[in-house]
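**Protein record**
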Amino acid sequence: MEELEILKQKKQIILQGAPGTGKTYKTAAIAVGMCNPNFSDFTNHQKVMEEYERLRNEGQIAFCTFHQSMDYEDFIEGLKPEVKGDAVKYIVENGIFKTICELAHIKENADIATCIDKYLQTIKGYENKKTIPTLSGKSELYVWWTEGNDTISTRSVSLKSEKGDQYSPSPLNIVKVMMQALGEGVENNWRFYAQAFINAVKKEYNLENQVSDKSYVLIIDEINRGNVSKIFGEVITLLEADKRSGGGTHHISLKLPYSKEDFSVPSNLYIIGTMNTTDRSTGTIDYAVRRRFAFVTLESKADVIEDWCNAHFVPSEVKKAALALFAQINGLGKTDNRSFIAKHKASDFELEDLKVGHSYFMAKDMASLKLKMRYEVVPLIKKYIKDGILRSMSDDDKYFKRWQNAECYNPSITYYKSVARHGR
C-alpha cells in the first residue's frame, strides 16, 4: 500500500475523504501492515481485523476518537482526583498518547523495571550512594539502598541532620517507584523525588533514546473534531521525524508540565488520523499541524462496489442497480459533470469531498439496497442540501423518491442505462 510507505517516511498521516470511502478499515489495514511486516493477506477483511485485534490487545495498536471536549489532560497527561478515606488527592495520570509512547520506548530486555533493579545494585549500601539532580535541576539528592529494604533512601545534599548521615527523611517505596515509572501508579508520598530517581535511571541506561524493536501505531479517528493544537500542546513539536528519539537526527525532548518528566516521541511510533472532508461543524487543522502530517484522500470508487459484489456473489440485478445509482449520484470519474453531486455542488467544495462513499452501495440483496438508499444515502444528501454543501434544485424530490426504491431517476437517459446494463 502506498499509504504504508508514506507513513513510514512521514511518521503520521491523515486519511481524508467523504463518508463511506473506507477510512476506518483502511487505518486498520495500514496499522497491521506497519506492526506486522509478515502479514500479507490484505484482501481478506476478516483476517485483517483479527490481526488488528491481536495487535491491539498486545498494546502495539491504540485507538481513540477526538471530540470537542477532548483536551491535553486526556491525551498527554493530567491531574486526576483520587479519593482516599475522607481526603481527595490529585495524581498525575498518563493519557493515551503518553502511554503508547512509553510502551514504544521500552526496548526488549532493557525495560525500566529491569533497569531500576540493576541501578539498585549499584547504590547498595550508603558508601555507594549516588548524587542525582532534582526535577528542577536547582539542587541534588543523595540516593542509596540498603539490601533487604523495600524503600530507597533519599536525602537532600544540603540537609544536615542530627540523626546522622544515613538518615533518610524521604524514603521511596520501590514498588510504587516502579509503578510510577511504568505509568501505572505513583509514589504518593514523594512523587517528585521518585521521578528524579526514575530520570536518573533512564539517563544511566540511556533509556530515553532507546526504542522497542516493534512498531507502534496510534489511530485517531475523526481527528478534525477536536482542537488538535490544544490537545497535542507543546508535544506537536516532537512529532517531526528528525526530532524523534531513537533515530531522529535532531532528537529533542521537553519537560511535561504536570509530571515534570523529560518526554520525547519515539521513532517507532506512527500516527494515523481520519478526517471527514464534509464535516463543517468541526474546527480546522492549522498549518503547524498540517506540516507534520501527510494528507491522503480516499476516493469513492465504483470499482470497489463491483469487486465487493463479485466477491459476495451478489445477484446481477442488485449489482447493476447499485452501480447505476452510484453513477447517477457521484458520476464516473473526476471530469464527469452529469452526476447529481456535480450539478448540485456548492462552489467552495471539491467534487471528490462530496461524493457518497462506495460502502453505502454495498448490499447483498435488493431489500438491503433499498434500506441503504432510504435511510442512509437520501438523508445524507438532504443534510448536505440543508447545510448548504449542496444546492437545492426543483426536481430533487423526484430523485429522492426513485432512489428510495433503488431506482435511478429518469432512467431513459442512455448513459445510466448503459452503466446498469454493462455493470459499468
